[in-house]
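Worked Example 4.2. Consider the chain below.
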Amino acid sequence: MAHFAKLGSGNKVLKVEVVSNDIATTEQTGIDFLNNFYNTRDIWKQTSYNTNGGVHKLGDTPFRKNYASVDSTYHQDKDAFIIKKPYASWTLNEETCQWDSPVPYPDDGERYEWNETTTSWDLINE
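Applying the procedure from the previous section yields the following structure tokens:
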């Protein structure tokens, strides 16, 4: 199945639609199908459900850095979908087009949540 993100003002993703691979043999044929189906001239960009951080989890070629989600934004200069910045202190990783915290997530098997006030990870006590 091929996935397509409908773009709105500011290239915000409004929704993601699925089109059969039999119909979407190319990106353009998928776009044409959706615009004919909805009787519109919307802007659509194909997105890959299996792409995250510029890596395709099945080993295929990664597509537009990240899978598009509603409220993410398509950045034409990077040809990438990028989610909304989660915290003011985080920075965009130009390679993955994902947001990096100023302190890496702890790798000790515990669960943490980001504390923007202290710019650190707080252990979640369950």
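The CA atoms of residues 29 and 102 lie 42 Å apart. DSSP finds one helix and eleven strands in the chain. Compare this with Example 4.1 before moving on.
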